[in-house]
Amino acid sequence: MRQRKLEDKSRRTRPGIIIAAILITVSAMIVLVEFMSSQVLIYRYRLTGALNDGNISSFVLLKKAAVHLGWTAAAPLPVNKIDSVPSPFLKTDPIFGWSAIPGEYTHIFTRGTKETLPVKVTINSDQSRWTGMPAQSQKPTIYVLGDSFVFGWSVNDEQTFSYHLQMARPHYNVKLFALGAYGLVQTYLRIQQLKSEISERDILVIGYAEFYDKRHVAAPSLLRDLESYLHDTAQTLGRRGWTPKAHIGSNNQLSIDLVEFDCQVVRSYCNSDDPSLSEMEAVSLRLIHEIAGATKAKTYLLYFDGSKDNPVVKNCGVEVISALQDFRDQAFDLVHPGAYWHYAIARKLISRIK
Questions:
Q1: N or C: which end of the chain has fewer CB within 10 A?
Q2: Model pTM score
């Protein structure tokens, strides 16, 4: 009788043992798969500068499931405060709308009440961002132009792709002319300033993303979407803020005007309709053609956000460096790409520019 009871007890515990064994085996397999996929991603990153292979790792899937089921906390909130030391960092500009004041800054990003990240930003006397070496007149120059992604908002001077490019190609000067909310209009205006000193030995790398199209025409919907932010920016700049707006006239001439961007001041403009998509794309395309045609420098279009079939990119007439598939890590502010993305972009540029 006692022997039978022991056998019955043993049978009752077997399902638990089996379940435990299955869980241990599945966990071991997940760990193994995650380790192998991580190694593949790491080596691919080292070789090509790209981490996104179109697959989602087991760890990411498990994390998403855990968040959904409430087993772990969701992702952190975006940055809610940015302080510049010294301040201000920006000023109004009669050509570009706004520009950075030359100097050395620490941008302090704050998330919540406790998390902070200090970021080093150095602006040279010509309004370019420091890329690691002083310019030398006997060297050809790589001009990098674009928005906050290209500028490296929320990453340090030494983490921008322009810095990595300068370190890898010391026989060039690398000048980074970019800033938050800039687009091809500011690139065009900057090239108009610099074209007399740009030669066929030089290179232009101009950033472009689909979301630029609305910026180029100061689309009312964009101003409405960013109303609170733009109002605060206008106050910071001195209570009034302007942005350049490009337009192709009936005579097929490209013209650029400054328009106010604070909807609390120009409500009627903000309530008006956007230009058609074809009009906005035509302006972007015209800006690229004007930029590329202004000098004899080799021009590259760095396309980093948008659809693969973007008509502006397809018809731009310059060599395109596509970064659509590249791994984009999130910087501390959760909006801009971080240091890994910048390194990946640098690898692409380094492979093209010898």
A1: N
A2: 0.81
CB 183 within 8 A of CB 147: yes
Predicted confidence (pLDDT) per residue in 185-217, tens digit: 999 999 999 999 999 999 999 999 999 999 999
Measured CA distances, 123 to 50, 135, 238, 332 (Å): 29, 14, 21, 21
Q: Find the DSSP H helices in the chain.
A: 2-48, 58-69, 148-151, 161-168, 184-194, 212-216, 220-225, 227-237, 267-270, 277-293, 311-314, 339-352
| Neighbouring C-alpha atoms within 13 Å toward the C-beta of 53 | 13
Alpha-carbon distance 110 to 87, whole Å?
Answer: 16
Q: How far apart are CA 150 and CA 134, in angstroms?
A: 20
Q: What is the pLDDT of residue 49?
A: 42
Side chain identity at 114, as an amino acid letter?
K
Contact between 141 and 173 (Cβ < 8 Å): yes
| Residues of the chain scoring pLDDT < 50 | 6, 41-56
- What is d(CA 247, CA 233) in angstroms, rounded to the nearest whole number? 24
Cβ–Cβ under 8 Å, residues 122 and 267: no
Helices within 88-211 (DSSP H only): 148-151, 161-168, 184-194
Given this model, what pLDDT does residue 9 score? 53
pLDDT of residue 34: 56
The phi, psi pair for 285, rounded to 5°, reads -65, -40
Amino acid at 98: W
The partner residues of 123 in beta bridges, in order of sequence, read 103, 129
Contacts of residue 119, defined as CB under 8 A and 6 or more positions apart, other chains included, come to: 106, 107, 108, 109, 154, 155, 156
Strand partners, 298: 203
Residue 146 Rama label (left phi>0; alpha psi -120 to 50; beta): left
pLDDT by residue (tens digit) across 39-92?
554 444 444 444 444 444 555 555 555 555 555 555 667 898 999 999 999 999
pLDDT for 136 equals 96
